[in-house]
């Protein structure tokens, strides 16, 4: 998704000689398995600005990409926390409001008014965003691809990058499965494979790949009706509607990041124990789901950095750029990331005021990005 958004935004700057290489097909990597939630609850000024740009882009996707669809479904977003997470959550909401995000604090009583099926006796407070929702990730990727192609970009599928072509300390292009492509600028937006691709340029990225589990739970027939996306910082799950009669359940456990895997060879299914755990957690928050059942499950992957924030930088040989390490947030931030990458390529780090925050050197400098939640995931 990052590469397609960057290609789209580059063409909007009048740069037409853009080539996107995909080792598989469009959305066959991490994008296709994204839950595609678009919520605005972030805890740094930079990511708040990025998600504001991205949500507005998704809401007006068809007009932005000349007719394509992202399948955006408006649901609203509701977050519940216990007393331990109350202060950082309130600080996050204050920051978001200062950036212009429409969000507000809500009591447990108000949470029940917004979603009557919720159990709230172990929640102290929460927040609500009326504007948020979720997308169809494959439709979104295809929409970016069509618009980029229409503006002159080429998208070559089933064409993995095998190496970087150099001339001294300058980028000359890439070697692919079907031959060499000459280019003075190369953007590594390889997602789960970004660390491997960076190594071809002699660049070490502090990124590892972890497995992320998704379970699809069926509502009892009497309870099948719309609901907001619900994020739960007590049981550490997030949920969103799925095809009317189902609810999608994903985990928010930091421990999941330690389940390191090979993105080319990992368990893509979900075990009975994993499904049972998901059902137990979601039925705690939605008691009606005690009568529900697991419809299916699958696992995708995240490309994770030490501070759970991306790397957007020019690194290594002249002409080599990195846009990677999104730690499970690549889809929802992709419009803003494409915009920022295009600015970085066209104008350098001065092209966007927030680019320096995401420099690779922050890790060596001992200056990781920290929001109001500290080390706890990227929120």
Characterise this structure:
- With 379 residues, this protein is of the alpha+beta class.
- It has three domains: 2-56 and 137-205 and 307-362, 3-Layer(bba) Sandwich (FAD/NAD(P)-binding domain), CATH 3.50.50.60; 77-130, no CATH class; 208-304, D-Amino Acid Oxidase, subunit A, domain 2 (D-Amino Acid Oxidase, Chain A, domain 2, 2-Layer Sandwich), CATH 3.30.9.10.
- The chain contains nine helices and 19 strands.
- The protein has helices at residues 2-12, 45-59, 61-64, 83-99, 108-114, 137-150, 194-199, 272-285, 330-347; strands at 19-21, 37-38, 73-74, 77-81, 104-106, 125-129, 133-134, 154-156, 161-167, 170-176, 179-182, 186-188, 208-218, 229-232, 237-242, 246-251, 293-304, 311-314, 320-324.
- The strands form five sheets. The chain has an eight-stranded mixed sheet with strand order 5-6-4-14-15-16-13-17. It has a three-stranded antiparallel sheet with strand order 2-7-3.
- A hairpin with a 3-residue loop joins strand 15 and strand 16 (246-251).
- Helix 1 packs parallel to helix 6 (137-150), helix 1 crosses helix 9 (330-347) and helix 2 crosses helix 9 (330-347).
């Amino acid at each position: 998704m990052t590469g397609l958004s960057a290609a789209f935004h580059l063409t909007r700057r009048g740069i037409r000689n853009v080539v996107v290489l995909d080792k598989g097909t469009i959305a066959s990597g991490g994008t296709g398995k994204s839950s595609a939630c678009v919520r605005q609850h972030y805890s740094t000024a930079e990511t708040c600005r990025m998600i504001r740009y991205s949500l507005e882009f998704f809401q007006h996707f068809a007009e932005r990409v000349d007719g394509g669809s992202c399948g955006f479904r408006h649901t609203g977003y509701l977050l519940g926390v216990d007393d331990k997470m109350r202060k950082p959550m309130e600080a996050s909401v204050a920051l978001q409001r200062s950036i212009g995000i429409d969000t507000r604090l809500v009591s447990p009583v108000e949470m029940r008014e917004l979603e009557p099926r919720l159990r709230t006796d172990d929640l102290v407070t929460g927040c609500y965003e009326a504007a948020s929702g979720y997308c169809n990730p494959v439709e979104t990727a295809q929409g970016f691809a069509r618009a980029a192609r229409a503006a002159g970009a080429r998208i070559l599928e089933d064409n993995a990058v095998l190496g970087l072509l150099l001339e001294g300390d300058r980028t000359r292009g890439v070697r692919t499965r079907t031959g060499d492509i000459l280019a003075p600028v190369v953007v590594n937006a390889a997602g789960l494979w970004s660390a491997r691709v960076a190594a071809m340029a002699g660049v070490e990225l502090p990124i590892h790949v972890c497995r992320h589990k998704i379970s699809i739970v069926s509502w009892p027939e009497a309870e099948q009706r719309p609901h907001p996306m619900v994020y739960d910082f007590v049981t550490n799950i997030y949920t969103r509607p799925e095809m009317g009669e189902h609810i999608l359940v994903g985990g928010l456990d930091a421990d999941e990041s330690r389940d390191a895997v090979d993105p080319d060879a990992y368990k893509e299914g979900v075990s009975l124990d994993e499904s049972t755990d998901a059902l137990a957690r979601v039925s705690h928050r939605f008691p009606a789901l005690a009568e529900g059942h697991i419809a299916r499950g699958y696992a995708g992957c995240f490309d994770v950095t030490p501070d759970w924030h991306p790397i957007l930088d020019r690194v290594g040989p002249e002409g080599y750029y990195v846009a990677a390490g999104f730690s499970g947030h690549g889809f929802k931030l992709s419009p803003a990331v494409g915009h920022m990458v295009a600015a970085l390529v066209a104008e350098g780090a001065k092209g966007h005021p927030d680019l320096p925050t995401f420099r690779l050197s922050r890790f060596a400098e001992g200056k990781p990005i920290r929001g109001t939640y500290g080390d706890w995931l990227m929120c």
